[in-house]
Specification:
Layout lengths: L12 E7 L2 E6 L1 H15 L4 H10 L17 H5 L1
Antiparallel strand pairs: 1-2
Length: 80
C-alpha cells in the first residue's frame, strides 16, 4: 500500500533508496523498452524461444545471470 519495494533487482526498473528500510522502483527506460519489445513480440505470436534467440543474436543487454546459471536470454528469462 505504501509503495515500498521489498525484493531485489527487477529488470526494467531501478531500485531507489528513499530512506533507511524504504526503497521504491523507478522505471529504467532503456530496460523497459526491451520489456515492451518482448511483450509486443509475444502478443504477435512469437514464442519465448524465438524471442530469446532474437535478443541474443541482436546483442540486446540482458538481466544479470544468477550464480551458477548461464548468461544470456533464455526461455525462462523471457517468461519471468
Amino acid at each position: 500500500e505504501l509503495g515500498h519495494h521489498t525484493h531485489g533487482k527487477v529488470f526494467g526498473y531501478d531500485v531507489q533508496r528513499i530512506a533507511k528500510g524504504h526503497c521504491e522502483l523507478r522505471i529504467n527506460e532503456h530496460e523497459a523498452q526491451i520489456v515492451r519489445d518482448i511483450y509486443t513480440r509475444s502478443a504477435a505470436g512469437e514464442g519465448a524461444r524465438t524471442i530469446a534467440g532474437a535478443l541474443n543474436r541482436a546483442g540486446v543487454p540482458k538481466p544479470r545471470a544468477q550464480k551458477g546459471r548461464r548468461d544470456g536470454w533464455s526461455v525462462s528469462t523471457i517468461r519471468a
